[in-house]
Amino acid sequence: MEMLVREKILKTKELSLDDFLMNLREKGFKFEEDVIGFIYFGKQYTAASDTIIKAAIEITLKTQKKFDGSFYISLLESLKQNNLISKEQAFEYAEKIGLISK
Q1: Is the pTM of this model over 0.90?
Q2: Which of 27, 64, 68, 78 is most exposed, with the fewest beta carbons within 10 Å of its own?
């Protein structure tokens, strides 16, 4: 019983940006070193949280079907300017501006 609870906690635990990128790699998204560098550049440039960085990556991949650096930076700036702090807020915003649909 305790093992099941522990596994559930680990599954729901927030992944670090590094772990998130590794998870994407395991799912088939193979980012080159320049893309990884660009993701971290965007993080420093916007001072966004890992949560918003990860949401921007997910939205970028969902809308562009690949990583598009200029789209990612533009989206990241927009998420920051709108003071969004959660993945849910980021996805609601992306829906609101027509990037994704439910």
Answers
A1: no
A2: 27
